[in-house]
Amino acid sequence: MAAAPPALLLLLPRRFAATGAAAGEPPLANVVRVPWALRARRRRRQAQEAAPAPRGGRLLLRSRRPELSQPRWQTVGRWERPALVSAGWKHRKACGDYFQLEPSREAPPALQETAAQGPSFAELGLHPALLPGLSSLAAGRPTAVQRLALPVLQRGRSALCAAETGSGKTLAYLVPLLHRLLRRREEEEEEEEEEGWPARPRGLVVLPSRELSAQAGSVAAALGGPAGLSVRALLGGGAAGGLRRQLWAPPGGPVVLLGTPGALRDALRRRFLALDRLRWVVLDEADALMDESFVGPLEEILAHAPLAVGAPVPAGPAEERTQVVVVGATFPAGLSETLGKFTDVGRFVLLGTQSLHRLPPHVQQKFVRLKGRDKLPELLQLLKERQVSSGAVLIFCNTASTVNWLGYILDDHKIKHLRLQGQMAAAARAGIFASFQKGDMPVLVCTDLASRGLDTSSVQLVVNYDFPATLQDYLHRVGRVGRVGSKAPGTVVSFVTHRWDVDLVRKIETAARKKTGLPGMDSSINEPPPKGG
What pTM did the predictor assign? Predict the structure, then answer.
């Protein structure tokens, strides 16, 4: 037997190395057996290098492994199971892997769906007193959800208004409802503001947080102020005297009142507030209002409003009922059941945009598989690489304790930031988000308290330090960038550390590859509502 070449000796199994000795030849020297796992890894690497590169063109999904990237032109069938980057992410060896969803549009769908078509606000026949406020808010042409909602709500119909985050839902309900109040005031001479107690607003907006109440209140005041409508935001967390002063500041009680369920319930129990003359009520960010901490106060508020047949009728024609508008980007199970206790949900009009429950196509979204101990260095590197002119940053954590801990770390690294979480005292929370909006601090570390409804048009980077617990939470967080009015689409970076995080990432990646909405999101809207009691 001829001597084996040196390069071959490394690959010879042990039985071949012994063959020469059995034939009477000297044993082969320096034979090293290559482990099976190493040889298998080498074969896989060679196969990847030999794999054909994906066809040219812009990418829909960019992977660290090029063979798993997906071009924008490629279509994955409804029943097809695509090869996922995140398929093996539950294994610890996947740490360090990543993929990102590339933007396929330059502007939010809410603007592209309307383009330059259709009338402007000034051409919609709105009450003239609303136009100066719309100009001050730089609202020239309605977005997609506003075009859907305005004609329906102007006719007094109750509605379920579902649209993606950042699409202009606040104006979608405020403009037509304030228009109705102004028109009715002109038609009824006796509609002069009452001097008395308790306060009896004509319009009520219920929101899940103080920050959102203050923000929506400023928009409502900008619209209603020039028209002579008194708008108040009722902020809880203080003494009874504070509630009374907010409700009855000069020159009288509010025509439109905005507040959280807790503050409104306290005002009703103290008899500072009565809802017997209510014309319309809005439940904004409905999924947050369905949280167990809000359901009790919300039901108590709805019980005081003249919603159901047989309840006291508000001033006006006997057949007119209080108009109910439910607004949100996602809707939880149980919403119809809660509303069905007070009104006939079957008569609601469903208003939904085409982009509802879909990943925003104009926002870059990156998913990074990391070990828990590597999240902090990655975050610090991200923050240090950001330019001062690159816009504000939102960092989401799942718990208040993580917000506080991360804040201490950022303090140690001399990174200026603000913190916002629900366990803060009301006095401590007051003004934090407003200060962030003004640009006083470039970084806000927060819980999901800041993920719903708040105007974050200055934010260009969202970091999910803790991956969200649900797909709904992910949609709300990613909706903090690329909003109507934002200067740039922005970027979202998500750290994926736990096995249960991977389950959600797989659903997101599958929906992105198939260009469909996120799974399980439509059931709460399309479920048959119960008959009203």
Answer: 0.80
